[in-house]
Write a structure and sequence with these properties.
Helix content is about 65%, strand content about 0%. The chain is mainly alpha-helical.
């Protein structure tokens, strides 16, 4: 019974994820109002670390990798972290062994936090080269 429930939940998550990704593939968030606006930017007028991510996902999914990355450079860090985590997960499953995961250490979490905060601050400085970080 537990396996069937787990399978149904996994299937529901996959279907939902594919549905959301298809929205980002077919519709540009900067041209359609069905996508949520950043509440932090709406309230403060300051870009958060995630501002531009929806447009970046749309551009990347449509093959415009550089344009997408220019909307939010932090996606490079997200891609590296997710790729590493996927690799560790696959290696653990294939070899049935617990490989060392550097991201399970507090030091790695602190480094990522510092990167996000620095990016958040620097992208709001209206001076070249920092203005390039704005979405």
């Amino acid at each position: 019974m537990l396996t069937k429930t787990k399978t149904l939940i996994t299937l529901g998550i996959v279907i939902t994820l594919l549905g959301v990704l298809s929205l980002y593939f077919f519709w540009n968030p900067s041209e359609h109002n069905i996508f949520p606006k950043c509440p932090f930017y709406s309230l403060t007028g300051i870009y958060c670390a995630g501002c531009g991510s929806q447009r970046a996902i749309h551009q990347i999914m449509n093959g415009h990798i550089i344009t997408g990355i220019r909307h939010n450079y932090l996606l490079i860090v997200v891609f590296i972290v997710l790729s590493y985590k996927a690799l560790i997960f696959i290696l653990n499953k294939i070899y049935n062994k617990a490989f060392f995961d550097v991201f399970h250490k507090p030091f790695a979490t602190k480094i990522i936090l510092v990167l996000v905060l620095l990016f958040w601050i620097l992208r709001n400085i209206e001076m070249h080269p920092f203005s390039e970080l704005a979405p």
